[in-house]
Amino acid sequence: MDLLAGISAGTVTTLVMHPLDLAKVRMQVGRSRTLGQAVGELLGHPRDAYRGIAPNLIGNAAGWGVYFYLYRQAKNALDAYGIQKTPLTLLSASFSTGVLTQTLTNPIWVVKTVMLASKRSDANAAQTSWSAARQIYKCDGPRGFFRGLIPGFGGTAQSAIHFVLYDLIKPHISTDLPDPVRYITSSFFSKSIAAVLMYPHQVLRAEMQFKRIGLVEAFRLVYQENGFKAFYRGLSANLLRVVPAVCLTMATYETTLDLLGGNK
């Protein structure tokens, strides 16, 4: 049930939020300097608004499905071995689940970044996910599909923090409120905190994947641009995308579980 609920959540969220994801990636790699510029470019080229939707849809549906399933199994294992569910044990369970999910889905995210960072009109721009994958393989071989994996674990840490905060906050939200409101409120606060804390890893990861460089070089180039402020470029677009996206994801996931009887 967690697998099906996660797939449903990832699919719905991606279909709704993809244009903002595209704007965020273009800001991270320096293609657009402001959110207004990124949105303006999309409005001027509406066909680009859903460029790269295929790998994003596949990655999110598969990623959320696998993550929710494995996280549930990890929490069940804590119960089975009599281990108390403290913030630390939940953080460990969430992080280890995220590392495995991130490793399995990283090739999809590399293809997605290459697609979203370029425009259809760019010279040599990949027009399909398959052509983007061929470009990556031709330039870097199999290793190219795992670019950004290490900083990607920063995203795993962000998700781990979010889920621990979510599990801690949700019981304190009034049960007099409708369930979807409780899910959204818990998600809003937990994800906002986690997203701001862990955002720099996303800039480094996008830089590595788009420019095909290592972590140290990516850090140097980003810092050289505008000091530590550069590590938060695209933050506004990210918060506008990721906080509503996670609220939608969690509400869809929890509601689907309710319908399937998995939250009983």
Automatic annotation (TrEMBL):
<keyword id="KW-0812">Transmembrane</keyword>
<dbReference type="GO" id="GO:0016020">
    <property type="term" value="C:membrane"/>
</dbReference>
<keyword id="KW-0813">Transport</keyword>
<dbReference type="Pfam" id="PF00153">
    <property type="entry name" value="Mito_carr"/>
</dbReference>
<keyword id="KW-0472">Membrane</keyword>
<dbReference type="GO" id="GO:0055085">
    <property type="term" value="P:transmembrane transport"/>
</dbReference>
<dbReference type="InterPro" id="IPR018108">
    <property type="entry name" value="MCP_transmembrane"/>
</dbReference>
<feature type="repeat" description="Solcar">
    <location>
        <begin position="1"/>
        <end position="77"/>
    </location>
</feature>
<feature type="repeat" description="Solcar">
    <location>
        <begin position="85"/>
        <end position="172"/>
    </location>
</feature>
<dbReference type="GO" id="GO:0006862">
    <property type="term" value="P:nucleotide transport"/>
</dbReference>
<dbReference type="InterPro" id="IPR044712">
    <property type="entry name" value="SLC25A32-like"/>
</dbReference>
<keyword id="KW-0677">Repeat</keyword>
<keyword id="KW-1133">Transmembrane helix</keyword>
<dbReference type="InterPro" id="IPR023395">
    <property type="entry name" value="MCP_dom_sf"/>
</dbReference>
<feature type="repeat" description="Solcar">
    <location>
        <begin position="178"/>
        <end position="259"/>
    </location>
</feature>
<protein>
    <submittedName>
        <fullName>Mitochondrial FAD carrier protein FLX1</fullName>
    </submittedName>
</protein>
<comment type="similarity">
    <text>Belongs to the mitochondrial carrier (TC 2.A.29) family.</text>
</comment>
